[in-house]
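Blinded run. Sample ID left blank on purpose so nobody reads anything into the name before looking at the predicted structure. Input follows.
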Amino acid sequence: MSNIFFEVLRPGINTTFQDKGRFHMQHFGVTPGGCMDLESFSIANALVGNSPSEGVIEFAYQGPLLKLIKGKTKISITGNVLFQIKKLNQKGINGECYRTYDLDEGDKVDILATKQSAYGYMGLEGGFDLKYFCKSVSTLDRAGIGPNEGKKIKINDKINIKRNRNEKKNFITILSNNERDTIRVLKGPQFDYFDKESQKDFFSKNYKISNLTDRMGMRLEGSFMKNIVSSNIRSEGITKGAIQVPADGQPIILLTDYPTIGGYPKIANVISADYNLLIQKTPGEKIFFKLIELHEAEQLYKEHLKSISETIKNIKEIN
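Blinded prediction complete.
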């Protein structure tokens, strides 16, 4: 067990450990889970020289206040986040996202809030000292699976670090802005369950993200989707990004902690290339859906992965 650790002085909102997820378990009823925003997650690890699958801290809206009790480490914060680095007996330094900072014994990192976005990430050199479950350190809070007894990080928790920092240099990269309110989708398996007018409305009118949004799903408010076949179907496997429409006619987008099966008709599915953009939207924001074909979605995903690789490739040393 490591003797290098943080103490949690404030846990923040929905603060958990996450990596890429826990795969090949859906037939047991265990969803893959993992990080909400793969892009921010990947860059957080790359900045501190970690492997692409190393576990990080994920937080929503307000992050934790952590004090480094013993040791020294290097951190990165990614997303659109307000945070401060507090050195001993010094004023807080306003932090900059997508770069690294050195922390020494007694220093604090205060992750105040995300700005016009939902999720942010903190990676650190060498990684956190966590127990794996089925080859993953992702926390699945509803099932009680993962490190920290499968629970969110709470006040006074001790967060162990694998090792002291070795890298003397600090690094930075620049993320290109990709803000837009259009989310591209593929037709769902029950697209034809909805009448022509509803299909037209789905792609021409906006939907507002409701307050009933978390890691499992995002409820939308907008045009009523009229089902002309059945509002219930035999339960079947579900994918991340599936857009279900229950009997009330209001769509629900299933997110990272989605259930493994479901019995509501699915009108569409968010493409992988737009998923990170979607989950960073906050309650009250309005979105539009645009229908595209499978070959377009595949090409867009290749371009999306290439963009992440380019951002990582452009990491450079700073003084």
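Unblinding after everyone has recorded impressions. The two ends are 34 Å apart (CA to CA).
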